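Inverse folding, one chain.
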């Protein structure tokens, strides 16, 4: 029996689910739909959407958690920068987001480094880092800055303010990443899915336009969807209709927030401060044109330009951790033998169990509903 109590608009959800069921019957084979967003995974798992869909409709989760895919080498390099600065008589204040703070690496987490007496603070936005830098003009304040397009836009806005003020003690370590190249890489690597549900928030920045080439060049049907459960269900329905009719298009379900061309001001700011580079994603390898580094003319804002340290290549994951397969949409957290046993949010073995956007963490949190 369907339990739609978690849906604000139960009648609408019921109607969409009935239409989905009809489409699924007409298609008559297994259909795999991928999303690439931790917030969508939260919507899906919290609402029990997998259990409400027909048996032949599978929702798989791709690389939707920027903290989970941040390379261990970058986290360790930032730690080494803190140590080198101390050796040279300078105490850095490091800020980052709460989930990044606890991400495990073979050399420990930022949380472990704080335990050694370093000044590491959790912030809700890069604006908090800016305020800290203003309050501590005699200290170097560094933001370890992860995130996809949605987070890069405010980071670029903050850099604009810092540059305009000539603030010299504010630096960043960019580990920003771009989402569409990761999807492109999955398609090229042969990850099998019939349609893609695009994240609404990323799409507010890059627009429908930013995703189009995934459809035109790789033949993947796409729907941009918002974050209410009925948004996601509509995304599923629109994709199933396209798949049944053999159509390959991109549709925008989230018209209340996403425009065709996206947010041009944000795109201009990102382009002014950052340039696109090939970049490593933890457990996924190097993905062409998927990283954002500060442009040469803004290098003085990059902490790596002040303290140069090297780190060896390190293993991405602990033995037995399936994060790589989870991030590729090839496995669900419940396929991992460590899930809920050795690996829990209190004692995470892999990065997917740490962030509130990590698929393993979300499955653990809403375990009763999937
Ligand atoms: Fe890795 Fe833990 Fe997820 Fe298993 S449950 S894939 S060990 S993060």
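Residues assigned per position:
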């Amino acid at each position: 029996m369907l339990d739609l109590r978690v849906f604000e608009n139960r009648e609408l959800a019921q109607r969409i689910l009935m239409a989905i069921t009809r489409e699924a019957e007409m298609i008559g084979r297994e259909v795999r739909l991928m999303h690439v967003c931790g917030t969508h995974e939260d919507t899906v798992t919290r609402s029990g959407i997998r259990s409400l869909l027909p048996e032949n409709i599978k929702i798989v989760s791709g690389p939707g958690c920027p903290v989970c895919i941040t390379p261990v080498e970058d986290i360790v390099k930032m730690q080494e920068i803190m140590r080198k600065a101390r050796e040279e008589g300078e105490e850095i204040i490091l800020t980052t987001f709460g989930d990044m703070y606890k991400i495990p690496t073979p050399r420990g987490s930022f949380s472990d480094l704080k335990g050694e007496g370093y000044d590491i603070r959790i912030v809700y936005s890069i604006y908090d880092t800016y305020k800290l830098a203003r309050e501590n003009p005699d200290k170097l304040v560094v933001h370890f800055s992860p995130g996809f397009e949605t987070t890069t836009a405010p980071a670029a806005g903050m850099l604009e303010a810092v540059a305009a003020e000539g603030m010299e003690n504010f630096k960043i370590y960019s580990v920003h990443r771009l989402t569409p190249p990761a999807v492109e890489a999955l398609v090229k690597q042969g990850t099998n899915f019939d349609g893609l549900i695009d994240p609404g928030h990323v799409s507010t920045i890059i627009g429908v336009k930013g995703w189009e080439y995934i459809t035109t060049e790789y033949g993947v049907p796409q729907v941009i969807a918002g974050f209410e459960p009925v948004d996601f269900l509509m995304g599923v329905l629109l994709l199933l209709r396209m798949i049944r009719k053999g159509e390959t298009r991109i549709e925008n379900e989230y018209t209340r927030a996403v425009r065709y061309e996206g947010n041009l001001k944000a795109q201009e700011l990102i382009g002014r401060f950052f340039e696109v580079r090939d970049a490593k994603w933890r457990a996924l390898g190097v993905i062409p044109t998927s990283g954002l580094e500060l442009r040469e003319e803004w290098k003085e804002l990059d902490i790596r330009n002040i303290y140069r340290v090297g780190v060896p290549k390190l293993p991405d994951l602990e033995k037995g951790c399936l994060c790589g397969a989870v991030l590729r949409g090839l496995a669900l957290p419940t396929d991992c033998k460590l899930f809920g046993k050795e690996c829990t949010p209190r004692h995470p073995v892999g990065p997917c169990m740490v962030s509130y956007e990590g698929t393993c963490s979300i499955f653990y949190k809403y375990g009763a509903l999937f």
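Residues 10-27 form the longest helix (18 residues). The first strand starts at residue 31 and ends at 35.
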